[in-house]
Amino acid sequence: MAAPLTDRVALITGGSQGIGRATAALFAQRGARVIIADVNEAAGAAAVQAIEDNGGTAQFVPTDVTDRAATEALAEAAQAAYGALDILVNNAGITRDATLAKMDGDAFDAVVDVNLKGVFNTTKAALPYLQGSAHGRILNAASVVGLYGNFGQTNYVASKSGVIGMTKTWARELGRDGITVNAVAPGFIETPMVETVPDKVMDRLVKQTPLGRLGRADDIARAYAFLASDDAAFITGAVLSVDGGLVL
């Protein structure tokens, strides 16, 4: 039986679509009260409505995670809405792919600002509230490419490798506060982010994956839900690869 998240307060960045939306829906289904943060207000409102239609509790807070003041306001909003903050899922992320020879500085900066600095900003803002929880969890979106590299993704790989480093550092620093810090490293998942990948490349990736398919957003959501639960209370500093065996 899946471990419940009853009455836990979960803040999920990038929660309006893809993995973030699936995670918000699953957390709400398991009893959490959810704050969805995203720059896409229409999609965020739709995600909240879907949760409420299924009997869950959720709110949307428009947030640009690259803006430190915005992340501070987000953490304050979560605390004000539910009186606590127990779980932070740093899921927001973007891609701007190109080979090193073709990548410009703006593309590099944009990805690092969202995927790495955004994780720092949001966690820094949420930390005082997480320290007041008896069930503090920080969950970071890494990637298998952050572990093994990937052609044409200098910026994305750098950001995800940095997230892995921060995860391990924060696990050391925050254990004394009873906060666990872990990362999930998805493989290639059926989300809007991979829609620009050429079909022949995706076909090759499917053939290379022992389970014979791309991942689904729910596959990653369930990994987050496990790490957020009491079943994972003694796991910290881990990077959980959820990739169908792609990197074996």
How would you explain this protein's 3D organization?
This protein has 248 residues and is of the alpha/beta class. It has a single domain (9-239), classed as 3-Layer(aba) Sandwich (Rossmann fold), CATH 3.40.50.720. The protein is 46% helix and 15% strand. It has eight helices and seven strands; from the N terminus they run E-H-E-H-E-H-E-H-E-H-H-E-H-H-E. The protein has helices spanning 18-29, 41-53, 68-82, 105-130, 144-148, 154-174, 199-208, 217-228, and strands at 9-13, 33-38, 57-62, 87-90, 137-141, 180-186, 239-242. Strands 3-2-1-4-5-6-7 form a seven-stranded parallel sheet, with helices on both faces. Helix 1 (18-29) links the parallel strand 1 and strand 2 (33-38). Helix 1 (18-29) crosses helix 8 and helix 3 (68-82) runs parallel beside helix 4 (105-130). The longest helix is centred in the middle third of the chain and has 26 residues, at 105-130. It starts with 8 loop residues before the first strand and ends in a 6-residue tail after the last strand.
Q: Kindly report the spatial arrangement of strands forming the biggest sheet.
A: 3-2-1-4-5-6-7
Write down the CATH topology: Rossmann fold
Superfamily at the CATH H level?
NAD(P)-binding Rossmann-like Domain
- Weakly predicted, low-confidence segments: none
Return the structural class: alpha/beta
Q: Distance between termini?
A: 29 Å
CATH architecture assignment name: 3-Layer(aba) Sandwich
- The number of helical elements comes to 8
Strand content: 5-15%
**Total tally of structural domains:** 1
Overall helicity: 40-55%
Mean pLDDT: 95
**Major beta-sheet overview:** 7 strands, parallel
In terms of quaternary structure, the protein is single chain
